[in-house]
Design a protein that fits this description.
By secondary structure, the chain is α/β, with parallel strands linked by helices. Helix content is 47%, strand content 18%. The strands form two sheets. It has a six-stranded parallel beta sheet with strand order 2-1-3-4-5-11, with helices on both faces. Helix 2 packs parallel to helix 10, helix 3 runs parallel beside helix 4 and helix 5 packs parallel to helix 6. The longest helix is centred in the first third of the chain and has 22 residues. The chain is elongated. Keywords: Signal. InterPro entries: Peripla_BP_I, SBP_2_dom. Its main location: other.
């Protein structure tokens, strides 16, 4: 009987230990792991976890591609099922992720959203939203392009995933600013599904079909990289004004060699760092703002080596 009692106690202790480990986990789930932008978000999140004294661990996950929305849904549901302490989520679709986030809310697992907004109906299911003001970022990209090409002519918009919250604000802000402040004709948008090779092929076709193109905008990292490579391959560098988005090494080199006139860079590291900090505050029962702007910087040759740019480039 004593052996049975000891065995039961050992099982209970083991179960409690397992539950404790699970409860200490913060799950960071992003749109894809195959992007330096999201890897920079990971670095920021890891830094915040590393300096925290709360004792939480962190896992980092994302689908192979941003278009693999069902995979991301499964990752969130799995995190809920293993009873994580909190979830930091960059949703790849404003609607598809809502049921999974609702499950987290029902399980009393706090969720902080980064980068892309969920549908308005989901507002009560998450505790905070940290992101670039994508409408403002799109407007800054449009202004940078107008500064280079003027207010007449034809421009192209190379976008990424139609319907993604960041895409709606960013490309919408770009298009609205162009229409309100110029007579530029917009070709597109063309959707790369955040695949660099797709963006390269699409941009090659757009340049070939529009010999009178004066400007072009690549709306996220893989799209802008593909766009830049296509511009160089077509011999159009410096001849067609180009504005990119995000700030990895490829895009920095394009700015330095003149393929891009500028790139609009988000605080990706800050999204991860501030996202985790916000989640830790929520877990500590502290009050947080519902919406937190993580900012953008327009990076050109003029400021690429200055602190304002170095703080966001990666």
């Amino acid at each position: 009987m004593r052996k049975l009692t000891l065995a039961l106690m050992a099982s209970a202790i083991a179960l409690a230990g397992a539950t404790g480990v699970s409860a200490a986990e913060i799950a960071v789930i992003v749109k894809t792991v195959n992007s330096t932008f999201w890897q920079n978000v990971q670095k920021g999140a890891e830094a915040a976890i590393g300096t925290s004294k709360a004792g939480h661990t962190m896992t980092f996950q994302g689908p192979a591609a941003e278009s693999a929305i069902a995979d991301e849904v499964n990752m969130v549901e799995n995190a809920v099922n293993r009873k994580v302490a909190g979830i930091l989520l960059a949703p790849s679709d404003p609607d598809a992720l809502v049921p999974a986030v609702k499950k987290a809310w029902e399980a009393r697992i706090p969720v902080v959203i980064i980068d892309s907004q969920l549908a308005p109906s989901a507002e009560k299911y998450y505790q905070a939203f940290l992101a670039t003001d994508n409408k403002k970022a799109g407007e800054l990209a449009a202004k940078a392009l107008i500064d280079k090409v003027g207010t007449t002519g034809k421009i192209a918009v190379m976008s990424y995933v139609a319907g993604a919250g960041s895409e709606i604000g960013r490309v919408g802000g770009f298009n609205d600013y162009i229409k309100a402040n110029s007579k530029l004709q917009i070709v597109g948008p063309f959707y790369s599904q955040s695949q660099m090779a797709t963006a390269l092929n699409q941009t090659t076709d757009v340049l070939a079909a529009n010999s009178d193109l004066v400007g072009i905008f690549g709306a996220n990292e893989p799209t802008a990289i593909g766009m830049g490579r296509a511009i160089k391959q077509a011999g159009k560098a410096g001849k067609v004004a180009a504005i990119g988005f995000d700030g990895n090494q490829d895009l920095q080199e394009f700015v330095k060699d003149g393929t891009l006139n500028a790139t609009v860079v988000q605080g990706s590291y800050q999204m991860g760092e501030k996202g985790i900090d916000t989640l830790l505050k929520i877990l500590n029962k502290e009050k947080v703002d519902k919406v937190i702007d993580t900012g953008v910087v327009v990076v050109s040759k003029d400021n690429i080596d200055k602190p304002e740019a170095k703080n966001v480039l990666y």
